[in-house]
Write a structure and sequence with these properties.
alpha/beta; 5 domains; 42 strands; isomerase; Udp-n-acetylmuramoylalanyl-d-glutamate--2,6- Diaminopimelate Ligase, Chain: A, domain 1; single chain; 33% helix; 883 residues; nucleotide-binding; UDP-N-acetylmuramoyl-L-alanine:D-glutamate ligase; Protein-Tyrosine Phosphatase, Chain A; 6-stranded parallel β-sheet; 30 helices; 9-stranded parallel β-sheet; Ala_racemase/Decarboxylase_C; UDP-N-acetylmuramoylalanyl-D-glutamyl-2,6-diaminopimelate-D-alanyl-D-alanine ligase activity
Length: 883
């Protein structure tokens, strides 16, 4: 079935302000004294708020307790609230009171050991019948917590009538999921399994992540044993299906290709839509889907009659032929011919759901893959470390190598590969096949660890890699010694191997050279925040504001993630901020919001859009554009009350005519900026600004001028002011799960913070009564105290206003800053925290165990705003990106 494209055109359809002014002032009042003109605007604004749905669409899903009890069938429960706000299996993920913590038991862990911690965080605990309460608190006791979790997921899935695409396969399912999501996000609000959530637990949590605003869902399913797929299918109940491949992954449990096909096809036994599947004997023999779209599972030398693809490794482009006979080229932004096949599979399903060729090309162009659980660090010696040493199989190893190739660019690329375990009898062939692919990823130095991985190296040499550039090691210690003398500034190093090898110990050793103060950026949280924003703005286009180093978080890497989520444009403050984005291949529209005449040449050279509000800047842009023979797209800023930049509403038409006089300039946008959209008490002023902006729009339309981009809403207005959305919104701070005010946060409950600012304890000592701490002797101990020195000072962004009373987290408890914050270090009192030692993590903002310090709390202490706290984090602080 095809999905209908939402309306994406702008219409000035708000009611006339004067007509509403006298009829609606009963809808609200303002706290301060208003003049009559402001009162009229306030009334109109409240009218627009009145026609909004009574239930806020951005709030987290609320599971009624009675519904949970219905589907978990407990034998005992106590002290339960009326509703539950989220389902978690990790106490560190509890972000709201009355979360449901499911205590799962595995071979190496037991969630029941963390029940007390969950209760302290305000959660309701779902426990097995063998658990006996040791303290008062809300709980639900069931026969088996995994069964109960999966029953909840299946019941939750039944509430949604949207297309749900189930994806499975031996290889490629995660990357196909990400490619397909990138394509579908060009038109729809997409929910997809987070990370590699494809297990019996992961699928349940993925399904429970569905929300009312999602228009399509993509759920990944992975199995390693017979019978597992039946439970996954009951939760996912896909309407459409994708089978990527049948191969040797998890061969130890599924044994043969035929049995693998039988088990994986169980996911598709109740499809109402199409299945995209490889045309192989095993699949054809056992497939029962009523509508199957077959594709050739091998890269072709030329396209044939059936869906297939060709691949050009030098240009990294593929030519696809889809089920409707259409043919077109797409970029493959992940190295390897197998990813051309993955792109074909994603494109076929997208086409089946009604997306156009241009949308498919756009989605694949925006796609850029990074393996899940991946961390990217840069040491003080400028060595980039890509740490994915948690698991390894042939497909994830190739994906990790693709990431090395992508981030390595022209640098020396070093791949450290360990044994791939759990491949059964096919292990030797899998290692040799991976080795033959190594030269294609541009690896300059290959280091292997373990007896199985040694064959990766020998096969790489046979495939053309110079023998001196391949080394094999039988112990972590020898590998570490070699790296100590080998790594140079500028190297990019990948660590990839099964967790049992403890290859991450080598990576951890090298990471000791990374500065102890770090800003962790959770890219998955950013992705989910984008989808929450898209749900709220309901089809309006989204411009991501990545100025000021993406609010201190590295604009390039954040922008790459945002593009994959289907944003429509980027915005920066100055032209220099856009140049690295263009150099990394980000070709979507980029708006420069502070256009300087002296930087007009950069605007033209890098094909940027310019925000303009003065004639001299127009002259500079016209001169440089004419010289280069190019056209520059401009947006006009209307000053409706911000008092910063732009032209007045009454002057917009004349200014637009000035633009039209210049043949190299194209007027494509009109915008304004709100002064206080985050403040409910100032809503009347926001509405006044809207009215002035509408006057500017009407003036242009009266002259036949229809800008393509019309935008007013910033983060605050995107959440709070539906009338301000026009056909584009600009969101910056909200991408990271932070909010300009409590009034905005009230509407943005479905977002979560994406950042954690942390450092380490570097010294611990006892202080006697009368001894002083730090410069100025502003703290003198009144009793014997234990003091820890932490590796963060005002040069890192830990401000001096944190002196004498600010707090950090150590071992899940708050420790107070004593004395003045220094340039590079600070001191905290840990007397009441037992066992603190050198090397302990210190969280400045973010979560630790079940405790949290928010950015807003720090901003409040410093009488400032969260924007400033984030933007002042020093470049010395290492940014670590978590996939």
């Amino acid at each position: 079935m095809a999905l209908r494209k939402p309306r994406d055109t702008f219409k000035l359809d708000r009611l006339h302000f004067d007509a509403l002014g006298t009829n609606n002032h009963r809808l609200g009042t303002c706290a301060r004294r208003e003049n009559e003109e402001e009162k009229k605007y306030r009334c109109v604004y409240n009218f627009h708020r009145a026609i909004e749905p009574a239930c806020k669409q951005s709030e987290k899903a609320v599971f009624s307790t009675s519904w949970v009890l219905q589907y978990t069938e407990p034998d005992c429960e106590a002290n339960l609230p009326e509703s539950l706000h989220e389902v978690v299996v990790d106490t560190r993920k509890i972000s709201a009171p009355h979360s449901l913590f499911v205590a799962l038991k595995g071979p190496k862990f037991d969630g029941h050991d963390f029940v007390d911690r969950a209760l302290e965080a305000g959660a309701v605990c779902l426990v097995n019948k063998t658990w006996e309460p040791e303290r008062k608190g809300p709980f639900i006791r069931v026969e088996d917590t995994l069964d109960a979790l999966q029953s909840l997921a299946a019941a939750w899935r039944a509430r949604f009538g949207i297309p749900v695409i189930g994806i499975t396969g031996s290889n490629g399912k995660t990357i196909v999921k990400e490619m397909l999501s990138s394509i579908l996000a060009r038109r729809f609000t997409v929910w997809r399994s987070p990370g590699s959530f494809n297990s019996q637990v992961g699928v349940a949590l993925s399904v429970l992540g569905l929300r009312e605003g999602h228009q399509v869902a993509i759920i990944e399913a992975g199995i390693s044993e017979n019978g597992e797929m039946d439970r996954l299918e009951a939760m996912i109940r896909p309407t459409h299906g994708v089978l990527t491949s049948i191969g040797t992954a998890h061969a130890a449990g599924l044994k043969t290709k035929e049995n693998t096909a039988i088990e994986k096809l169980k996911l598709f036994k109740r499809l109402s839509g199409a299945l995209v599947a490889p045309e192989t004997p095993e699949v054809q023999a056992h497939n029962t889907s009523p509508r199957t779209l077959w594709f050739s599972p091998e890269i072709a030398s030329e396209l044939g009659a059936k869906p297939s693809c060709t691949y050009q490794p030098i240009s990294a482009r593929a030519r696809l032929k889809l089920q409707d006979g259409s043919e077109f080229e797409v970029p493959i932004n992940a190295a390897g011919a197998h990813n051309a096949m993955n792109a074909l599979v994603a494109a076929m399903m997208a086409s089946e759901l009604g997306l156009t060729k241009d949308e498919i090309i756009g989605g694949l162009s925006a796609f850029g893959y990074a393996p899940m659980r991946l961390e990217i660090h840069t040491t003080s010696n400028w060595v980039t470390l890509i740490n994915d040493a948690y698991s390894s199989d042939p497909v994830s190893a190739r994906s990790a190598l693709s990431t090395l190739s992508f981030y390595g660019a022209n640098a020396r690329k070093i791949a450290i590969l360990g044994d791939m375990l759990d491949l059964g009898a096919l292990s030797e062939d899998a290692h040799r096949e991976l080795g033959r692919d190594i030269p294609g990823f541009g690896v300059d130095l290959l280091l292997t660890l373990g007896p199985l991985a040694k064959s990766i190296g020998s096969s790489a040499v046979q495939a053309g890699m110079p023998a001196p550039n391949v080394r094999s090691f039988d112990s972590i210690e020898r590998l570490s010694e070699f790296l100590d003398g080998e790594l140079e500034s500028g190297d990019v190093v990948l660590f990839k191997g099964s967790q049992a090898l403890e290859l991450d110990r080598v990576a951890s050793g090298l990471l000791e050279s990374v500065a102890p103060t770090r800003l962790y950026v959770d890219l998955e949280a950013i992705r989910q925040n984008v989808q929450a924003i898209k749900t709220r703005i309901q089809g309006t286009r989204l411009m991501a504001v990545v100025k000021s180093f993406a609010y201190g978080n590295d604009a390039t890497r954040v922008s790459q993630t945002l593009v994959r989520e289907g944003i429509d444009a980027l915005a920066v403050a100055y032209a220099d901020e856009a140049i690295p984005l263009r150099n990394r291949g980000l070709n979507l529209p980029i708006l420069v919001t502070n256009t300087l005449g002296g930087e007009a040449d950069k605007i033209v050279k890098y094909d940027l859009m310019a925000l303009v509000g003065s004639v001299p800047v127009l002259d500079d842009l016209e001169r440089h554009a004419s010289y280069r023979g190019k056209a520059v797209e401009v947006h006009v800023e209307v000053d409706t009350g911000m008092g910063r930049l732009g032209v007045k509403s009454k002057d917009v038409l004349e200014f637009a005519k000035e633009i039209l006089k210049r043949p190299s300039l194209r007027l494509v946008g009109l915008m304004t900026h709100f002064a206080s959209a985050d403040m409910a008490q100032d809503d009347a002023y926001t509405t006044k600004q809207l009215a002035l902006f509408d006057e500017a729009i009407v003036a242009l339309r009266s002259a036949g001028i229809e800008p393509e981009w019309v935008h007013a809403a910033n983060t605050a207005a995107a959440w709070r002011v539906p009338a301000a959305r026009y056909n584009l919104v600009r969101v910056g701070l909200g991408l990271y799960g932070y909010h300009p005010s409590a009034d905005v946060e009230e509407w943005a409950k479905d977002t979560s913070p994406a950042l954690k600012f942390a450092t380490q304890v570097i010294h611990v000592k006892d202080v006697e009564p009368g001894e002083s701490i730090s410069y100025g002797r502003t703290y003198i101990a009144e009793s014997k105290r234990r003091i820890a020195t932490i590796a963060a000072g005002y040069n890192d962004g830990f401000s001096r206003f944190m002196s004498n009373g600010g707090e950090v987290l150590i071992r899940g408890k708050r420790a107070q800053v004593v004395g003045n914050v220094c340039m590079d270090v600070s001191m905290v009192d840990v007397t009441e925290i037992s066992g603190v030692e050198v090397g302990d993590e210190v969280v400045i903002f973010g979560t630790q165990d079940s405790a949290e310090i928010s950015v807003d709390e720090i901003a409040h202490r410093g009488s400032t705003i969260n924007y400033e706290v984030l933007c002042k984090i020093s470049p010395r602080v290492r940014r670590i990106f978590i996939e």
